[in-house]
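Summarise what follows for lecture notes:
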Amino acid sequence: MDVFTPKKDINGAAIVFVVSGGFFSTLGVAPAEAWMAGDHLEFDVEAPQRLGLRGVWVDRPGRGLPAESTVRPDRIIRALGELTDGL
């Protein structure tokens, strides 16, 4: 298994990569086999899920999902290092 991590810009924000559907076929994987992890529920979890990827929410403070959230992550972690635990 390969784990790809985004580069950071000078402000420390993750650089987002936009890929076409052919990206996954080039890698030989289906979108459902790919994971997107981030700390923004709508951008990092919900949007990738709409494209068929699995969305992982990084809840660093450990507060849990906001009560009003309609987004349901496939997984919730507190640190990126947990992403590969149990795989």
About this structure: Confidence is low (pLDDT under 50) at residues 9-18. The longest strand covers residues 54-58. The chain has one domain: 22-84.
